[in-house]
Structures are given as C-alpha cells and as structure tokens.
Amino acid sequence: MDTADRAIINNLQGGFPVAERPFAEVAATLGLSEEDLISRIGKLLAQGTLTRFGPMYHAERLGGALTLAAMKIPADEFDRVAEIVNSFPEVAHNYARDHAFNMWFVLATETPEEIGRVIADIEHKTGYTVHNMPKLEEFFVGLRFEA
Amino acid sequence: MQAMQIKTQGAEVDTMPIDNTDRRIIAATQAGLPLVTRPYHAIGEQLGIEPQEVMRRMKRMCASGVIRRIGAVPNHYALGYQANGMSVWNVPDARVRELGQKIGDLEFVSHCYHRPRHLPDWPYNVFAMVHGHDRAEVEQQVKQIADLLGDANQGHAVLYSTRILKKTGLRISV
Fold first, then answer.
1. B111 closest CB neighbour out of A14, A15, A141
2. Number of domains into which chain A is organized
3. What is the distance in angstroms between the Cα of A144 and the nearest Cα belonging to chain B?
4. Per the confidence metrics, is the pTM higher than 0.80?
C-alpha cells in the first residue's frame, strides 16, 4: 500500500459521486488518472484491504429489520448453542465476547414481525433467554479508518 | 467530522417508497459498483434501463437515505486495527441523546447507538464501537469517553470479541 492507496482509502469512505464518469472526477481530486484509480480500487479489493466498493443500503428503510441480540451461555454449553444459533439463516453474524453476556449476534429479517418469531424460536431450541437489544436511536458518525 | 442524528425510535422508521426498478438497481449494486469508467451506464446496460434513469434513481435513494453512502468499505483488520471493543455505558435516560451525540463525535467511534437496558444484569443503554491498533489504545479511547461523560457515567464495560462464530454479511433481499 503506497501513499496513493492510503489517499484512496482515507478519502473514499463516502461521497463517491453519481455521475457519468465518477472515477474521473474523484481521480482529479486525488491527482491520479482515472485508469490508475480504477485499477488501484480493484487491487485493494482483491487483496482484501477493502471489503466492498459501492453503495451501502439502509436495510430498515427498505422494509427489512435488524436487531442485536445477546445471550448468556455457560461455557460447557457454548458450542452446542452456537451451532443452533448459527443454523438460522436470519443470523447474519455472531461473535463470542468476553463477558457474562458472551454470545452476540445480529438478526436480519425481511419484516419487523419476523424478529420476534426468530427470537422465540432460538429460545425454544436452545433453552436460553435471548436478550433483544434493537437500536432505539442511532448517533451517526462519519466512518473513517485511517490507512 | 460532525455526528448527525439520523433517526429515532427503531420501530417507527419510515420506509421509503421504492419500486421494482429501484429494487433491481439495489440487487445489481449491493455487492459493489462495476469498476469501469462509466459504472452507472454499465448497470443500466445490464438491466436495460437508461443510464440517466439509473443515476436519477440512485441520487434519489441517496437523498432519501435508502443509500447511506457510496464509497469504499475498508477491512479494518487489514489496516492494522486489531483491537475492536464494544464499549457499553449506563447513562441517565434523560441525557442519552445529548451524550450519545457527543460520543458519536469522537474520531475513533465508528458506531454509536441507544439500546434498551435489560435489568438487573444489563444496565447499559449506550453502545459505542471503538477501534485501535491494540487493546491499550482501545483502553485509552474508553478513558476519553469516560472523561467526556464525567458524572453521567454510571457504569461501563468493554466487550472484546474473542471469536467470530458466524459472518455471512448482510444481504438485503429485494
């Protein structure tokens, strides 16, 4: 990764234009050629420095629902419960964390009503309580990871 | 950078009117934009929609918030941010909005949310994701948040992820 790659990462985490030649517009501000910018973004994606390049959609505004849920699982039950939780297609990601609330997962469903159904189902199949922690309010931040 | 509060009660989020053509554009672009000189033209060609129409609709979705932003999503592990802590805070309900906004303004916070408490075991009502190159850096950031909150901090914890159990990413089905 060189200076130009860092400039791309630091300046392109939002605000990519909707225009006829958007890469040319951005390249001009970064002092790169359009062709160089396109090939660098492709390389950063291929090597895994970027995970995506494009529009980020807002699931809830498209009618879908998201929530964060947490469970407290005894150590000797953890793997069994993780397997059951992960088997639900609605579980988008699931992390083990170092706390009494040790399993944290995101549920994504097509409608808000399905969140409750999936939670009840997980509780039934695992025998443990699911603590639903939907966001009540979001304090939006400009996401910026300095490269 | 200024934080901006974008919405209120989760259950009452407005869903924006989008039609079938919008849905096709979303499906064609949610994995990424084509890396060509005229990406919106390429999408139009793929879908049989005029490029001007693709751009008009994408601009509208940006304005309405259906598109949060367009750009690059860095893999923060690849950039050296190895320590990622979920810091959680117990602050007075009456001050959640004011303090959540202040936390969101901090450079190192990538997400900040008001979430419900689950008493008695879970007294925390504000979540802030913080990222550092190591845990010492994260602890320093957490201290900055604690200093910022002062007396309003009625307890906090930092939860580090120890294992990724599943990661399929969010795909919106449209």
1. A141
2. 2
3. 7
4. no
